[in-house]
Specification:
The complex is a heterodimer of chains A (about 350) and B (about 300). Chain A is mainly α and about 350 residues long. Chain A has one domain (about 75-315). Chain A is built from nine helices and two strands. Helix content of chain B is about 55%, strand content about 5%. Chain B has eight helices and four strands; from the N terminus they run ααβαβααααββα. In chain B, helix 3 runs antiparallel to helix 6, helix 5 (about 160-180) packs antiparallel against helix 6 and helix 5 (about 160-180) packs antiparallel against helix 8. The chains are: A mainly alpha (about 350), B mainly alpha (about 300). At the A-B interface, helix 1, helix 4, helix 6, helix 7 and strand 2 of A face helix 1, helix 3, helix 6, strand 3 and strand 4 of B.
Chain lengths: ~350, ~300
């Protein structure tokens, strides 16, 4: 359905490559988990410290693949907050420029934040939808303020972000990869409510999944309390976009539901071999049905999550080792900047 | 123990692995100072408290969409029946969204039950009935949605159903947000983060419907605001009403004032507010005074957290 980028360097092809990189992601998460679980014994070493290269189970090709050693990255609460802050910058600029017509004010973007090309202010033909997106825009500004206050002087400025819709702009690349447009067509997400809903949907689920992935890694319960509130807000924003996309997509002849499934599949192609992502209705990308799938949840009713490094794969739009790309042409600032596959 | 590290969908098999890991953590904790050992118990209490809400909402949503309930979950505590509801006449998209919300809600009980293991509570006695003596009538009178002495039928119209689902879903979300920082086990925190996000989706869907319908039927936004005010007063939850608000900012051509919706319950701090389980029980037992039963749970909730705080 969707073209997946294949790692040409992986001798066992895409499936093996994706599997190994999922293991790397799991290893990263392991460090956070066990560090905490064993903390009451006064021993905060990761159990993996005794065997830094765990034998991957179920790997079908023992040779000649380069060994993937899980990167055990010690993450502080601030590292994770800085990571979340930058994802929030991306969304806040997107909505601020497209909905409010202005970029983030300097006191919110931070010193030296590079200018952004691309977004244009949208005029909504549906009044209620415009009101909802304005709520979203202000909601992101509020979240940004909260995160910057938590970080204090440790807050980083917004890095360079790509929100462009021209030939090489991020949204055109996404839409071509998801077979929404064909080259040389571009995908102008600022041209219509429908296109803007799809672009918002693409970003919203990424950030909500990122919150779920980051939350268990925080150490301080005070941080968890605040970030839990921010996480719930992000999930509300996501549901607002997904429900509007679902309802708009029920109109006769609408391609919105189908396109949401294609965009979901594209996000999914960057992170792992596991299906962690769904469109806004049931059925397939070929034949979506009318049943609602507003909640991007697994079979046990829980929203999907991605650990930080796999989130980077999605925002950089790559299943390869990378420290920049996609929405962040110069990468993220801070400790968490490298995709899961190393 | 690698199986608890699998990311994403917590399959039943993986969740069982988590149960074993939780058991191991408990054993480790026993050798720790007593204060630390007690924290493992808190995680189980929190999950069991959440199960009460999951059972209540799961049955309610099942009646709304199908006109029938689901089998009561077994487990510890007194297993009860349901003082039943009935089917609501809804259009197809609303039926589909409510069906999804119900199945998410019921499905989310499973990983919690698996992680808790043998201590998982069963379904307590539930009251989701309409009628003059039903809990929804009591709530909606207190909130001022209907006058004192008037009956409120949660199944009588889409509008009344939305108020009722909103009341319970908002209560679940603020309760879970309040409970999250009490958790210590990382697997439970991961699960609970997903649960909060799911509940937040449901709240936003219902608030979105109230907001959208309220554009042509202003009492829907006004009544939703009354329900929020009641929830704030009785649970201390910081929460926004549904009616739109004006926001002022520096726009492209100078200061601009625009209208923004309130689909998200979030206040200006960017966060959804939380409440304690005892405060949530004020809303669920529908009692101003501290009690251990009443309202939606005529014989009380199951588990260790069962007394309301009082208002």
């Amino acid at each position: 359905m969707v073209m997946h980028e294949v790692d040409p360097a992986a001798p066992d092809g895409e499936a093996g490559a994706r599997r190994r990189w999922l293991q790397a992601g799991a290893g990263l998460f392991a460090a956070g988990l066990f560090g905490s679980l064993s903390a009451c014994g006064g021993d905060d070493r990761s159990p993996l410290a005794d065997s830094p290269t765990p034998t991957p189970t179920g790997s079908p090709s023992p040779s000649p693949v380069a060994t993937v050693t899980p990167t055990i990255q010690a993450l502080t609460d601030n590292d994770l907050l800085i990571f979340i802050l930058q994802l929030t910058y991306l969304q806040a600029e997107f909505y601020s420029m497209a909905i409010l017509g202005v970029p983030l004010p300097p006191d919110l973007a931070g010193a030296g934040a590079p200018a952004i090309a691309g977004p244009r202010q949208i005029t909504f033909k549906t009044a209620a939808l415009g009101e909802m997106f304005r709520e979203l825009a202000f909601g992101k500004l509020d979240q940004l303020t909260c995160l910057r206050e938590m970080l204090g002087s440790a807050a980083v400025s917004r890095p360079a972000v790509d929100l462009d819709v021209t030939e090489n702009g991020v949204f055109t690349r996404i839409a071509r990869s998801a077979a929404i447009v064909k080259s040389p067509e571009t995908f102008d997400v600022y041209a219509s409510e429908e296109a803007f809903l799809l672009a918002s949907f693409f970003l919203e689920d990424i950030i909500t999944a990122a919150y779920k992935g980051a939350l268990p890694l925080f150490q301080k319960s005070a941080t968890i309390a605040i970030c839990g509130g921010l996480l719930a807000t992000s999930a509300c924003h996501t549901a607002m976009v997904r429900s509007q996309l679902y309802l708009s997509g029920l109109a006769s002849g609408s391609t919105l539901r189908q396109r949401s499934i294609r965009l979901s599949d594209l996000r999914d192609s960057y992170d792992s071999a596991t299906d962690l992502d769904q469109g806004v209705s049931g059925g397939s990308a070929t034949t979506p049905n009318n049943s609602a799938n507003v909640t991007n949840a697994d079979g046990e009713g829980l929203i999907y999550g991605r650990p930080p490094q796999l989130t980077l794969n999605v925002v950089y739009l790559t299943n390869l080792p990378a420290t920049s790309g996609g929405f962040f042409p110069d990468g993220l600032t801070g400790t968490i900047r490298q995709t899961a596959r190393t | 123990m690698n199986n608890i590290l699998q990311w994403g969908r917590l399959s039943r098999r993986e969740a069982i692995g988590s149960t074993l890991a939780l058991g191991a953590a408990t054993v480790t904790a026993l050798s720790c100072p007593a204060g630390v050992a007690a924290q493992t118990l808190v995680d189980i209490d929190v999950l069991n408290f959440a199960l009460n809400l999951s059972y209540l909402q799961g049955q309610f949503l099942s009646y709304i969409v199908t006109g029938a309930g689901v089998s009561a979950q077994t487990g510890t505590g007194a297993i009860g029946t349901v003082n039943a509801g009935r089917k609501v006449a809804l259009d197809a998209p609303t039926t589909s969204m409510l069906t999804e919300i119900g199945s998410d809600t019921r499905a989310a009980a499973n990983p919690m039950r698996v992680i808790i293991g043998a201590l998982a509570i069963g379904q307590p006695q539930l009251d989701i009935s309409g009628g003059a003596n039903g809990p929804f009538t009591a709530v909606m009178q207190l909130a001022g949605v209907v006058p004192t002495g008037s009956e409120f039928d949660p199944y009588g119209s889409e509008e009344n159903m939305l108020y009722s689902v909103f009341y319970l879903k908002a209560t679940a979300l603020s309760t879970y947000c309040g409970l999250l920082p009490l958790l210590t086990n990382r697997v439970v925190i991961q699960l609970f983060s997903g649960l909060i996000e799911t509940e937040a989706h449901h709240v936003a869907v219902v608030r979105g419907l109230l907001y959208a319908r309220g554009a042509s039927k202003p009492q829907m936004r006004a009544n939703a605001d009354k329900i929020v005010a009641f929830r704030r007063a009785w649970s201390g939850t910081i929460e926004q009403g549904v009616s739109p608000a004006t926001r002022t900012y520096m726009g492209p051509a100078g200061p601009a004032t625009v209208l923004a919706s309130n689909v998200t319950p979030t206040s200006r701090n960017g966060q959804v507010g939380g409440c304690t389980p005892a405060q949530a029980l004020n809303l669920l037992y529908v009692s101003r005074t501290p009690v251990a039963q009443g309202g939606f749970f005529p014989l009380g909730v199951n588990g260790n957290l069962r007394t309301s705080a009082g208002v």
